[in-house]
Write a structure and sequence with these properties.
This protein is α/β, with parallel strands linked by helices and 369 residues long. The chain is built from 11 helices and 17 strands. Strand 8 and strand 9 form a beta hairpin. It comes from Pedobacter cryoconitis.
Length: 369
Amino acid sequence: MKVVIIGGGIAGLCMGIYLHQHHFEVSVNERQIFTAVGGHAFLMHHDGIAVLNELAANSGYVLPGRPVYTFTLKDPAGNIITEKPLEDWQCFKRTDLLACLHQLLPTSTLNNNRVFSHFIYEDHKIVAAAFLNGEVEYGDLFIGADGANSIVRRQLFGEVDFESGKVKEVVGIVQHAELAGSLQGKFTKFQQKNIGLSFGLIPTSGTEMVWFMQYDPLLDDIKESVNARSSENYHEQLRELCQNLLKDFPAEVQSVLEHNDFKTSYIWNTRDFDLLPDFHHQNVVLIGDAAHVALPFTSAGTTNAMLDAKILSGCLMDYAEPDTAFKAYYQARAESIKAHVSLGRELRDAFLNPSSLGTIPLISSVLKQ
């Protein structure tokens, strides 16, 4: 049986590795050239780390994550509001994780420069995926792992009703050896008490940190569009936005902004959508952000995508009929995904209205699968 995976991000690569390890014929098709691009860094909890350890077992490759042992929440004056230990959490640079996952698949299974166009049907059955470069990949099963803006999902289910997350994030990576060295193993967040505004820092190496600013765009914002991002002064506007919103935050925050190259930073417009009625149609199934998108406050998006790959691969091995496997996969994932969507919205509302709900958590206890 040949499985064609559309999308070579973390979800698609994990799916490909699982299937390859269980002797499926696999083709992973990525729109970009297979260099690790896009995104900055993210937290991952035990469930995701367990998947990575399983995928890399006996490979000899060292996983790239760095442990995060404590979470410290401070007010804008730098006073500690709360501090607690974190059990089995790590910070991963997306580029490092993608590079590691690429090594766990034979290069013969990886195809790049393939932007998905449409499915090819024979006798009302999907038999191949066609790409904008004119190439075609035939297969028996097809897995859509092409992200939140999934073309595969759109062709199967039509347009989803995205709900605005009402919160935006500016995300960046900064070289700052002194500060990174002092914050090793720590996740530090500065939170305004009365408005939706926060700033977080997590070291990704001994000299480098990922940082983010979560903010209510009603406080201040800049014009976001493809044309705006290509303008000469866009990154300067981004710098000014951060400096203006964070002007009352402590010296550590100001130092990060001074050292940061805003040409490598970007704004993430958070959004989600309700649980789909199913994750498959005929012989095509969705995983990761193509199947479900939740707001970032649960810190579980990447882990959920990897769990999709683990559970779907298990269902495909347990059931002879793909349709039965797909239904079992949906049944295993739907309740948890629905709960994560709901929890993300609850935490979003708490972030936007902190005075009414007290100090909000930075990251939630991850829901058990």
